Predict the 3D structure of the following.
Amino acid sequence: MIGKVWAGVRAQQSAVLCFVMLGLCTGLAAQTAIAADCPGHPDAIGTSRTLVVDPREHPRIGTMQYPETLPLEDHEVVLTFDDGPLPRNSDQILQILADQCVKATFFTIGKMAQAYPANVRKLRDAGHTIGTHSWDHPLTMNRMPVERVRQEIDDGIAAVSAALGDTTALAPFFRIPGLARAQDVEDYAASAGVQIWSADFLADDWRHISSSRVYELAINRLENYGKGILLLHDIQARTVAALPRILAEMKARGYRIVHVVPATLQDPATPTEPPQWLLHPPSENVAISHWPKIPAFTVASAEMLPAPSRSDLDWQDGLPMAPAENATSRGRGVPVPREAPWPSESLPAPDSAATVLPSPAQNVFEMQEGLRVVLASAASPRHVEPPISSTREAGLAKSDRDDDSRGAGSRKHHARLAHRGGASHVAARGNRAVAHAHRGPLKHLVQVKRRHV
Ligand SMILES: [Zn+2]
C-alpha cells in the first residue's frame, strides 16, 4: 500500500482527480517565479516557465535509464536535488536558489524529513516541488522483495507528508535511491500514479571531488546534451560551493530553468506531443537538409531501347583470364593458374534442344558388389551391416557385441535398410550381424550424422 497517506488514491478513477482529492501540489504552479521577477537580483537566471506533467501519461522519465524524459526545449534545464533535507547545506542551497529565483525539485528521504521536518516545510514555502526518495535510502531496491520495496516507498511518502502536515505540497514524483531501477519498483509506482524520475545527466557531486569538478561536469554534460534533468544533492557542501557558478554559467550560455509540477484538475498537463518526450526527437528537417532532392530529369522522347540478343551474351573466346608471364613472379615462386579456377563456360542450349532429359540407366545407382551397408534405424545409431556371406561373421561376433553393448537395450527394435547387389529393400532383422568389412569410414560416417540429429 502506499498507505496511510495515499490510501484513497487507487479508489479514484481519474489520476488527476486523485491528486486533487489528496490535495497534492495545489498552488505549486502559481508560486513559480519568472526570470523577469527577481527583485534585487538583476543577474538572476530565474525560472523561465512551469511545465505541468501527468505522471500517469509518462510514468518513467530520465534518459539515463528510460526512453522518455521531460518535454524540454533546447537549452532548457530542470534542477533536482536528492537526499535532503540536511539543515546546514540544504538551507544554503535554498538561499542560492532564492537569490537566482530558481525553482527546483527536491527528492527527500523519509528519515531526513522525520529528523528535520521544518526544513521540508521550507522547501514548500519557497515554492519548490517536493518528491520522495524512499524511507532510508537503500541502494538495493533492485534486489528487494516486493513487500520491502513497497514499504520503502510508502514510508518515505508518509514521513514527508507528516513533516508537511498535509499532502498539499507533495508531488507524486519518486526517485529510486542510487537509480537502482527494478520492475517491482516501477510497477508499484505506476499502480499508484507515481512518476519515477531518473535523470539525463549527473555532476558526480556525491563523489569525493572538488566543487570545481562538480561545476565542470555539470556544465560539460549539459553542453553535450543541450538540455535535460540534472541530478544534484542538496546535502553536499561541494554542491553548495558549485551551484552559484553553475547557475551563472548556465545563464551566460543561454540556458533556461524550467520548474516541473504535477497536473491537477485546476492545472492540467502542459499540452505536448509524444516526440517531445524524447531527448532528441527525430526531426523532419534533418532528413530534408541531408538528403538531396531527386533531380527532375527531362525525357526527350519515349523511344524504347532494343532488348539484348543472345549473341550479346556469348562468351568471348580468346580473352585471357590472367597474364601468364607474370603469374609466377606475382606468386613469389608459387605458380598460379593461368585461368580463373571456376568451371569453363558451357554453351547455351540451342533453341531446338529437347526439354525432356533421358532417364538414367539403372546401373547408375548400383553399388559395388560386396558393399552392403545397413543404415541403422533411429534406435541404433552405431550399427553397420557386413555382407551376409562374410566368412568372418562368426569370428567377429564378439567384437561386435563389445561394440554394440552400449546400445543393446534397443537392439531388438532395429529396422535396417539394406542394399544387396543394387536392389534395395528394407529388412527388419532380429539377429545381430557384425560390422567389419566396411566398418571404418562408413561406420564413422553414420556415427557423425547421428550426432547431429
Ligand atoms: Zn539519493
